[in-house]
Amino acid sequence: MTALSIVHLCNLPLPETHPDFERILTHPGRWVLNLALAQKAHTDINPILVVQVPGASANHVQCIEGVDVHFVAAPDRLRSATLFHFDAKRLSKYVRNIDPDLVHAHGTEDAYALSALATGLPYVITVQGCLFIINRLARPPLISRNTIVQLIERYVLRRASHVIAKSKYVQKELTATFPNLCLHEIPNTFDPRLLEIDSTKGLVPKKIAFVGTVIPRKGFDLLIDAVASLPESLISVVELHVFGNHSGQPSDYEKRELERARSILGDRLVLHGILPAIEVAKHVAGCSLLVAPSREEMFGNQVIEAMLVGTAVLVADQTAMAENVRRFGGGSVAPQEDALAFGKGIQAALEASPPTTESVRNRIVKAMGPSTIALAHREVYEEICKNGRR
C-alpha cells in the first residue's frame, strides 16, 4: 500500500488564533480531528482537515496537534436557498488545489457531501446528522432549510458508492432507503487523553450530567420530566449539570426547559455552556450518571466518552447509544418517550454502588481504539482508490 493524502471535509471548533474566535459559534465536536490524529499515529495517511466557516472574515490555516487544518471563509446567507451551490463550488475548488488522493466528507447535513461529489476526486461519505431520519421526528415546513438539506442529501446518496455508517442502526436505515450504497460500519474513535482521566477521583454522589444541545431531538424535556418524577427526598439533593447550552441566544425551547429545570432544582441546576470536549469529560468523570434521552442519535460520542471515564449512563432505546450500551455494558436503556422509566432509571443508578468500569473501558478500547479505527478507514480508502473514482 502506498501512502495516501486524505482531505477531511468536516466541522471543528475554531482555535483561539482564528481571527473570528468567540465571534462565530461553530460545532464543538472534534471527532474528525481524533480520527486524523489516529491516522497520523497508526497509518501512513497524511490527513488534512478543511472546515468551512460561514460568516468568517478570512481564510485561516493552522497546524492543530500536528494536523494541518484549513478554515475556509464563506458568506453566511442564502446558503440553503441556493442549494449550497456556491459552497460546493468554493470547497471543491479549494480541495482540488490541495490535490489529495481521496476526499472524506463528514456529514450530509450541510455542504460537505455535495462538495466531495463536486471535486471529481475519489470520495467517501460518513453519514451523520442524516436528515431523512431526523425529519421523521418533526416534519419541517415545505420551504425550510431541513427540507432543502434532505433533498440534497437524497441527491448525493443516490449518486454515491461508498458510505461509512457509525452504527448498525444507521446502516440499517441506509440499506433500506439507499440500496445502491456500499456500506462500511466504522464507529468514531475517541481522544486517547480520555484514558488518562482518573475516574476514581472527584466523584460526587447524586450528580447527573446532560451533554448536548438543548433541543427537542436530544430529549432535554424528557429529562426534566424524569427529574420531576423522582421522590422528593432525591429531588432535594440531586444536581443536574448541563454541558452544551447556548448562553448567548437560546431558543424558546431551551429557555422554557431551563426555566422549568430551575424551578425544580434551584441552584442545583448548573449550566456550563459549550466547553472543549476534554474539559467536559473531566467534569463528567465526577458525575454519578450521564443521562441521554435523545429521541434520535446516530452515534452518541458523549455516551462513549462517559463510559471511558467511568461514569454510568442511561440512554434512550432505538438509538445507536442503546446499541453501544448493550454491546459494552456500563449503563442501562430506557424506552423512548418514557419519562417515568427514565426517572426510575435515574433513581436506580443514583442509589446503586459505583459501577466497575475497567472491563467496559477495555471493550471500548478494543472496538473503537485509535489504531483499530484508523486501520479500518485505511482499508476503505485503499479499496476506493484502487477502483478509481467514487
The H/E string reads: EHEEEHEHEHHEHEEHHEHEHEHEHEHHH
Strand order of the largest sheet: 3-4-2-1-5-6-7-8
The low-pLDDT segments are none
The third-level CATH topology of the largest domain is: Rossmann fold
Proportion of strand residues: 15-25%
CATH architecture of the largest domain: 3-Layer(aba) Sandwich
The tally of helices reads 15
Distance between the termini: 19 Å
| Number of structurally distinct domains | 2
Q: Determine the fraction of residues in helical runs and give it as a percent range.
A: 40-55%
**Chain-averaged pLDDT:** 94
> What CATH first level of the largest domain would be assigned?
Alpha Beta
CATH superfamily of the largest domain: Glycogen Phosphorylase B
Q: What is the rounded Rg? A: 21 Å
Report the biggest beta sheet as strand number plus sense, adding barrel if it closes.
Answer: 8 strands, mixed
Work out the oligomeric state of the chains in this entry.
Answer: single chain
Question: Got a strand count?
Answer: 14
Shape: globular
The secondary-structure class comes to: alpha/beta
